[in-house]
Amino acid sequence: MENRQLGASGLHVPVLSFGTATFGGQGDFFKAWGNTQLADAKKLVNLCLDAGVNLFDTANVYSHGVSEEILGLALEGLRNRVLISTKATFTMGDGPNDFGSSRFHLITSVEASLRRLKTDYIDIFHLHGFDANTPVEETLRTLDDLITAGKIRYIACSNFSGWHLMKSLSASERYGWAKYVAHQAYYSLLDREFEWELMPLGIDQKVSTIVWSPLASGQLGGKYRRGQPIPQDNRRSQGGSHGPETDYERLYKIVDALDEVAEETGKTVAQVAINWLLQRPTVANIIIGARNEEQLKQNLDAVGWNLTVDQVKKLDAASDRDPIYPYWHQRQNLKLNPLPRFY
Prior knowledge:
Number of strands: 10
Number of domains: 1
CATH class: Alpha Beta
Strand content: 5-15%
Distance between the termini: 22 Å
Strand order of the largest sheet: 3-4-5-6-7-8-9-10
CATH topology: TIM Barrel
Largest sheet: 8 strands, parallel, barrel
Radius of gyration: 20 Å
Number of helices: 12
Structural class: alpha/beta
């Protein structure tokens, strides 16, 4: 398993991590993701470790804490072999301080996650979203204090806009606090808006990307095909996904290109879609999920090989789309605003 350096930190992470949103299956939203309980969770953890995947990603809102609890139990006796990533920001209760990135909520959230995960520290702690109600100085000072206290080791963010991330990095630099070393972001062949601003920012500021939903909620997994009914047995159809409405003609165009490359490589459509992401600038890690061992084994086979330059170009062309303003205007003068180099 290849490992890559995470942003401007000294931490190295495997290029794949295992996402545990399927653990627990509590509530309608997460039930659509899966309902993995402890016995199966232990099997999936061991499969990951055998393949060199030692980073496990969760969040406090996944099944309202149950995912963290199951992961903590599944990792008993293995803590010195693994990296744990979790998140906070979203609502965890009915009180006025049960959400957000305030000092109160973050400290409460970290303490609760540590108890559920049965650990003394969190390796990578993410803000799950940007809190526009709390000053970034309060948030970042709190995160820096939690690092000093030894409760978290590295900080990252998720689902930030470019200005959210840049403002935060500037405040950290101004006051000498810890900086975000990674941005966990939605990115796939189907949804490439990440490349317009967040990728150039990551290149400039040495912020790595941890990709979530690399298969666009299963739409790039091989089941969605031209001329066939839209599958109803997946997370998106069952209400377990958010995101923009799908342009199916564009999706099928991408799947057609994926089919061609899959035939050339002898890999599956899903494996090709994941491997394409590993060729992109700033991408240090891709979160893969699985409801069962077979799905996990297939996803693990997305690494250990590389698409050719021509195959990458074919997928780029099939998935390209016109950017919105101001990005289309910036692309009119590439001398001033060079695009990230992909190959």
